[in-house]
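Input sequence (239 aa), recorded before submission:
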Amino acid sequence: LMFNIRRLMQVEFIVTLMMVGFIFVLVGTTPITLESFPLVDWRYVLLPFGPILFALSGWTSIEPAVDAAKKKKSIRIPGLVFGTLGVALVYLLFSLALGSVGKPVTPDTLSGILHLPVWKISILLLFGLSAIITSYLPMSVEVKNALKDGLKWNTSSAFLFALFLPYLLVLAGFNNFLSSIALVGGVFVAIQYMTLTQIARKALKLEGWRKWLANLVSLFFVLAVVAQAVRFLLPILGY
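Predicted structure, token format:
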């Protein structure tokens, strides 16, 4: 967190390359089968909204990338687009490989793959650690900058808050990974993206099909929030 933007992006880039390498090793050494993937399981039809939105949310990396590009005077929107599509493809490959070796696939992942060779389990453990690093760094920078620039905290206080907040949340009981990312992705990220879409629609003065497309995207995020709320309420109601 003490690195400047350029050094931070270098760390992110190296760790991301490691993650992609881990995935391709796993995919290349795993026969892909669809036996563990039911076509439709209505019990979990609402589950993917939150985790998928969380997994594909790259908003915390946009600001550092734009700041770095401004210094080089080379902001390239296609890079953001293809970067997002590339992440989605890598996630798809990882899901297919993990679903093929994990029978059944478990919420914590690890308990479903203990039958694998030690080297494969080690790769998955390293992948998990890398995923935490690449998620934590940009989010922490975003929190630190928001506190410092938006709320006018001093640099030390903003740094310490961003550094220790995750530990405090775990100690407070937020230690179920799947539930946590479902809540964050399905509610907070969805609300934020819906808000950003509407701000962009008004700021860019979109008309015609572009305006309708922006509203359709916003509606999708509204449905994500509702779906996640229903997902949490169903067990309480006995369904």
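Checked by second reader. The radius of gyration is 20 Å.
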